[in-house]
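Side project, low priority. Logging it here so it doesn't get lost.
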Amino acid sequence: MLVVDHDTAHTRLLRQALTRARMVNPVVGFARADRALSYLHGTGRYADRSQYRLPAVVVTAFGIDNPDGPRILDAVRTSIPLRKTPVVAIGTLADEDEVHEAHRLGATAYLARPLACRAIVQVITSLNMPWSVSETGS
């Protein structure tokens, strides 16, 4: 899972929620979109795909004041290996226009802040990716 959010505390809380939900896929977090884009494109220090695998899910901050969300969505939706990857957009408002814009750009789901990390876990679980959930709790 790739998380792109300037709020590093939110990324930490999300990691904790995923651990409690027994999600076993690694979580890679970036506060800056340029680094996340390098990771998504496999460029620079992230060129070795055996070490830096493509994410199964992308969670990105999204909003009118945040140009990073649309950039991340565009990178995912225009990349052949990534285009079917689920993207959860997290906005600051439950503004209908923002929600429609996120979906127009290809977001699988939109959640408004403040939100419990549990909501993100529920959305990811609802994507029916059983391989991302530890059945043993290890």
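Brief comment: The chain has one domain: 2-132.
Revisit when time allows.
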